[in-house]
Specification:
Elements lengths: L6 H14 L21 E3 L5 E3 L7 E9 L10 E5 L7 E4 L5 E8 L5 E7 L10 E4 L8 E3 L2 E3 L2
Parallel strand pairs: 3-9, 3-10
Antiparallel strand pairs: 1-10, 2-9, 3-6, 4-5, 4-7, 7-8
């Protein structure tokens, strides 16, 4: 089984490794401050995915959630990419007027791993990739993945 290192952990490891090896940047940093990256626009609310029993029992596995502003205002029309292994196979889901979305990802229980990312209309990322592992148990077959705008 292949295990991947989260992007932030990899970057932190690379930074620490470079510092330990005595590496320093060879280019003078620009004097202007770059605007925040698009990836910082949305983040996973409370840094967690919530699992609960599905209202329809064991017959379905669903990912649902919301997109909200930092002040809790719903964010309608937010595009959320969802895929399993291959990002080229991603399907985009759009939040409704209340900022909610729901996707039935499997009939019955599954142990699949899903990836979600908020994107703009051109497909550019507006959040980090969130990894949601389904748990094949009737007590945990509904996953809540909520996004909130960064302050």
């Amino acid at each position: 089984m292949r295990k991947s290192l989260p992007r932030r952990a990899f970057l932190r490891l690379a930074l620490i490794s470079g510092a330990a090896a005595g590496c320093s940047p060879s280019v003078t940093p620009p004097t202007t401050v770059a605007p925040p990256t698009a990836a910082s626009r949305f983040r996973l609310e409370n840094d967690s995915i919530n699992y609960q029993p599905h209202p329809r029992g064991c017959d379905q596995t669903t990912i649902r959630g919301s997109a909200r502003a930092a002040d809790s205002a719903p964010q309608a029309g937010v595009m959320i990419r969802l895929w399993e292994e291959d990002p080229a196979q991603a399907v985009v889901h759009v939040t409704d007027a209340e900022g909610n979305y729901a996707v039935d990802v499997s009939p019955g229980l599954t142990n699949q791993t899903f990836r979600l990312q908020v994107v703009d209309s051109a497909g550019a990322p507006l959040s980090d990739v969130i990894v949601a592992a389904a748990i094949p148990d009737c007590r945990f077959n509904s996953m809540s993945v909520n996004f909130v705008t960064s302050p």
